[in-house]
Design brief:
560 residues; alpha/beta; Glucose Oxidase, domain 1; Enzyme I, Chain A, domain 2; TIM Barrel; eight-stranded mixed sheet; eight-stranded parallel barrel; 22 helices; 16 strands; 48% helix; binds phosphoenolpyruvate; binds magnesium ion
Length: 560
């Protein structure tokens, strides 16, 4: 009998294969056999720890050497984490306190996991990395192979609790045809890497770890459904239909418009010159979100205006000629701590001094950045729009717009806080455009940490409450005759993208890899169908019903 499991859809596509179940633990029997290790003294135990650290770090470095871009950085960061001196000295203290080596390592790791978790946001994500490192260290100490993803012998569906960067970074899309994880949300590492690789992916699938290894599993990354032991004929037919669909996507070349020709600007989210240049080669109408803070994650000191201008120039230079760039001012704080800007020791950083709020006490930081952006715009001649993150009031929008316009640039603000959505008409009286950050808007509407994998059902932009706030914002834009875009992950979901357009959103900005699927889907949907999809989704009670309602409307519409 077919068992149907449900999760949060992350990357669309249908794939079928035997379940390859990743283990996250070293075998308990090996741990029992090792016992206290029989070390003559603490120094000998610590030497065994050092040898395990060296082996694990070497493994990460080897993988980092074979990877590139963000993946290589994540792996290098894991190598740094395992060799951390603080971790070593905590292990040493634990040994001195009379613990055996395995207990000492476990306690030290839990100490840092607790510390990272209490910091929240991106630091909390590091807790997953630390737990992964723990498993690898134990394996080396007791002389077992490192836990993780086994190498598949045939194209398989990878099933896991959650995947650490070290696992996802080395996946071969020819052998791992889909991912289904029991934990993890739409912003987890698993989701980010699956999007990069374009592998169908569903996260937060309750019960998926119970699937027997080798059982055939069908993953539908659009609906979030995982079928265990499906009807073979039906499953093969669905995979074939999906293959045809993907071929149609590859053939789409832009520009973004609905089937009946209404323009929707499809833009790229970029982080630096490399990603901006790569995205410029895609059929994008410009950059809808340049996350400037990502250029400075490792900086202790604020970069000078000239240094910043040089970085922004490299990004802007890849555009122009009718393709504008929307630069977001520093969104430091909370999940993106930046040493020279973030306020340390906040009780609750996600609700603290982050984004535009940093300029309340220290306007110089914002003004120097705006000077640098204006200089880069002057050097390149690229049409440059500037927007602020984490805006909550019309007065904040007014002050920001004044500072931006003083420098001859177009000013906008992000809608990430429910107050901004509710007062969108007031904000639009102050600025030239709005851009909805659905990642934070969802987090703040649902009061659910966007990084908390166990709250993935709440941190879903299909939550009707979030959809209503987007609709209010888009309606205000239509009334004011000003552009309202979406630049959160919601824009990268082809089904949701049509719903957003139906609400009146005028641009969608996303990872460059998502532009073709979104553009191809939009090109087959009329504006009236988008409107009907929006209406159906807004009337739903929960995310699953909203998805289904939108899908039903789209399926019922005559193919364009
Ligand atoms: C958002 O919150 O949706 C957004 C685009 O900003 P970030 O993901 O960088 O916080
Ligand atoms: Mg945000």
């Amino acid at each position: 009998m077919v068992t149907t499991l449900h999760g949060t859809p992350v990357v669309a596509g249908v794939a079928l294969g035997p379940a390859l179940v990743a283990s996250s633990e070293v075998s308990p029997a090996a741990i029992d056999r090792f016992g206290d290790g029989g070390f003559p003294d603490d120094d000998a135990a610590l030497a065994a720890y050092d040898a395990a650290v060296a082996a694990v770090a070497a493994g990460f470095e080897r993988k980092a050497g074979a990877a590139s871009g963000a993946t290589a950085q994540v792996l290098a960061a894991s190598a740094g984490l395992v060799t951390d001196r603080g971790l070593r000295s905590t292990v040493a203290q634990q040994l001195q306190a009379g613990n055996d080596l395995l207990t000492a390592i476990g306690n030290a790791v839990e100490h840092f996991v607790g510390l990272f978790t209490s910091m929240g946001g991106l630091m909390a994500e590091r807790a997953t990395d630390l737990r992964d490192i723990h498993g690898r260290l134990l394996a080396h100490v007791v002389g077992e192979p490192e836990p993780g993803v086994p190498v598949p012998e045939e194209p398989s569906v990878l099933v896991a609790a959650d995947l650490a960067p070290a696992d996802t970074a080395v996946l071969d899309p020819a052998l791992v045809v889909a991912l289904a994880t029991e934990r993890g949300g739409p912003t987890s590492h698993t989701a980010i890497i699956a999007r990069q690789l374009g592998i169908p992916c569903v996260v937060g699938v309750a019960g998926v770890l119970g699937v027997e290894p080798g059982t055939r599993v069908l993953v539908d990354g659009a609906s979030g459904v995982v079928e265990v032991d499906p009807d073979p004929g039906d499953a093969e037919a669905r995979v074939a239909a999906d293959r045809e669909e993907r071929a149609a996507l590859a053939a789409w070349t832009g520009p973004g418009r609905t089937a009946d020709g209404r323009e929707v600007k499809l833009m790229a989210n970029v982080a630096d010159a490399a990603s901006a240049t790569a995205a410029a080669g895609e059929p994008v109408a410009g950059v809808g979100l340049f996350r400037t803070e990502l250029c400075f994650l490792n900086r202790d000191q604020e970069p000078t205006v000239e240094e910043q201008a040089a970085i922004y120039t490299d990004v802007l230079a890849a555009y122009g000629h009718g393709r504008p760039v929307v630069v977001r001012t520093l969104d430091a704080g909370s999940d993106k701590p930046i040493s020279f800007a973030t306020h340390p020791d906040e009780e609750n950083p996600a609700l603290g001094v982050r984004g535009l709020r940093l300029s309340f006490d220290d306007p110089g930081l914002l003004h120097r950045q705006l000077d640098a952006v204006a200089e880069a715009a002057r050097r390149t001649g690229t049409e440059t729009w500037v927007m602020a993150p984490m805006v909550a009031t019309a007065a904040e929008a007014r002050d920001f717009a004044t500072a931006v316009r003083d420098r001859g640039l177009r000013a906008g603000v992000m809608v990430e806080v429910p107050s901004a959505a509710l007062l969108a008409h007031q904000l639009l009286a102050e600025v030239d455009f709005l851009s909805i950050g659905t990642n934070d808007l969802t987090q703040y509407t649902m009061a659910a940490d966007r990084m908390a994998s166990d709250l993935a059902h709440l941190t879903d932009p299909w939550q009707p409450a979030v959809l209503h706030l987007v609709a209010i914002t888009a309606a205000a834009g239509r009334e004011a005759g000003k552009p309202v875009g979406v630049c959160g992950e919601a824009a990268a979901d082809p089904l949701l993208a049509a719903v957003l357009v139906g609400m009146g959103v005028t641009s969608l900005s996303m990872a460059a890899a998502a532009v073709r699927p979104v553009g191809a889907r939009l090109a087959r949907t009329t504006y009236a169908d988008c409107e009907a999809m929006a209406e159906a989704a807004l009337a739903a009670e929960d995310p699953a019903a909203a998805r289904q309602a939108a899908r039903d409307v789209q399926a019922a519409a005559a193919p364009a």
